[in-house]
Amino acid sequence: MTKNMRLLGAGIAAAGALALPTSAFAASNPAAGATSTPAVTLRANLSELLGAHAVLAQLAMEAGYSGAADYTQLTSALNQNTQELSQAVASVYGSAAGSAFKKLWAGHIADFVNYVVATKNHDAAGQQAALTALTQYRAQFSAFMAKANPNISAQALSASLQVHVNQLINTFKAYVAGNNSLAAQDFVAAYDHMFMSGDYLATAIAKQYPTKFMDSNPNTPAANLRLTLDQLLGAHAVLAQLAMETGFSGSPQYAAWGAALSQNTNELSQAIASVYGTAAGADFKKLWAGHIADFVNYVVATKKNDPAGQKAALSDLAQYKVQFATFLAGANPHYNPAALEQSLQVHVNQLIATFNAFVHQNDAAAIPDFVTAYNHMFMSGSYLSSGIVQQFPSKFGITMVPNATSPVTGIPYLPVMAIGSAIAVAGTALLARTGRAAR
Q1: Hey, where are the domains in the chain?
Q2: Which residues of 240-276 are buried (b: 16+ CB within 10 A; e: fewer)?
Q3: Taking the model in full, what pTM does it have?
Q4: In this predicted model, what pLDDT tens digit does every residue of 7-45 receive, in sequence order?
């Protein structure tokens, strides 16, 4: 996840305060830079890393329990994610704090591993010992962060960490029980929760170092638009890959991942509809579902050892790339069709490369490709949200959203799934209707 290293400032002061690149924050054009202020960038980067942690931790736990061949590569990716989170903390609070963070963070991952091992060994006492260790971690980590930053409430952070622990344990237990539908739902919920955590931590850090973040806020309508798209697009990449792999292998998890992917498509379509109207949302959904069907067709052709079918699916994806770029550029004059096509081609290439590596049991390539495909969607979220904010600047003020708190944790945030109320635009469908060509 080297892209995430943009979080680290090139020149970090001796005090450990983060110095983010600010070239994208154009003070003369607040609308253009509203989704990439220093504080919003911090929030996006932390959320991206934390979201990846939840995904990789859950997949590693399942692979460890089942004895899957990709367990080693998943744990390697999870360790790399821990390293990058630790470096992010070090860039703000210094190397000693980064090392302390890494020790605590790695420790709680080890606790999850111990729970998996105990479950596999039918060791109830071992399971309880792992849960007790996670409770101790929760107290230690909350105290650590609250000591570093007076804007962090140890109590609120501890409650959020308990949610995280519960979600990962419940996802794993549902997986072990063979309740694939519940496991997939809990998987997505655990991923979503990390975006609340990224919001909370970024808000606290930006408040602690206002000069370093140019007095910008990470919790604004523009920021929440970006994080909504980041969150949903990141989930799309993860769920699409899991659905493709389980579809090929004939896993009983396939239907659950497919249902979660369909729900993600609905939520992305609702986000588009909240900006451009219901007709545009429907058009988006048709195109988006179409490209997912193309990936499914590629999987089916691969399973049948049908090169012609694979080629046809890739040809359909190439057509989709042009149609979807035209669709978005027709709605928003701030989008470059060529840039959109290029980004969509990268997305296609990454999912196909990950799947092909999976098929050939090349885990050393499949897992890094999996992470890369996830990371790429955050670039897409940044680009798309910037264009929307520039198109509708009056709908996306850069003022802090007051008194917004999570109903679960009490942590201040604007719910990223509720952007419609903040950005609803009274208008008809502006997107050009370029429905999927008939097959």
Answers
A1: 2-6+37-216, 230-423
A2: bbbbbbbbbeeeebbebbbbbbeebbebbbbbbbbbb
A3: 0.86
A4: 333 222 222 333 223 233 333 455 778 999 999 999 999
